[in-house]
């Protein structure tokens, strides 16, 4: 079983392809949790622990440079599954 700090380290965060990033900065501005910053003209994840995986960055990126590789599905404890 993972400890709390290990789970934190394994949080899914959006993946940014620097080859596709044009440096527009839209993802940095749209993120409500300030997860991203620009670094040498490319968006980078600087606060992964703050990412709530809402996907605004992925939705706004004009070059499709950001992808969320995992879909998070919240299950009701009383349900049998998705
Ligand atoms: S929105 Fe896309 S292209 Fe613009 S800075 Fe972010 S990752 Fe790069």
Strand-helix topology:
Elements: H1 4-9, E1 15-16, H2 26-30, E2 36-39, E3 42-45, H3 56-60, E4 66-67
Antiparallel strand pairs: 1-4, 2-3
Bound molecules: iron/sulfur cluster (SF4).
Summarize the structure.
The chain is of the alpha+beta class and 82 residues long. The chain has helices at 4-9, 26-30, 56-60, and strands at residues 15-16, 36-39, 42-45, 66-67.
Number of helices: 3
Name the shape in a single word: elongated
Radius of gyration, in Å, reads 15 Å
Ions, cofactors and other bound molecules: iron/sulfur cluster
Q: Mean pLDDT, nearest integer?
A: 86
Separation of termini? 24 Å
CATH fold-level name of the domain at 13-67 = Alpha-Beta Plaits
Q: Mind describing the biggest β-sheet?
A: 2 strands, antiparallel
Structural class: alpha+beta
Oligomeric category: single chain
What is the CATH C-level name of the domain at 13-67?
Alpha Beta
**Relative helix content:** 10-25%
Contiguous uncertain segments of 5+ residues: 1-7
How would you spell out the order of helices and strands?
A: HEHEEHE
For the biggest β-sheet, the strand order reads: 1-4
**What CATH architecture of the domain at 13-67 do you see?**
2-Layer Sandwich
Give the percentage of residues in beta strands.
Answer: 5-15%
The tally of strands reads 4
């Amino acid at each position: 079983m993972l400890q709390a700090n290990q789970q934190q380290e394994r949080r899914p965060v959006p993946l940014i392809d620097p080859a596709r990033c044009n440096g527009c900065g839209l993802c940095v501005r749209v993120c409500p949790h300030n997860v991203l910053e620009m670094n040498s003209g490319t968006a980078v994840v600087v606060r992964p622990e703050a990412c709530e995986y809402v996907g605004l960055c992925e939705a706004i990126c004009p070059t499709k440079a950001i992808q969320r590789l995992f879909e998070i599905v919240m299950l009701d404890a009383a349900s049998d599954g998705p």
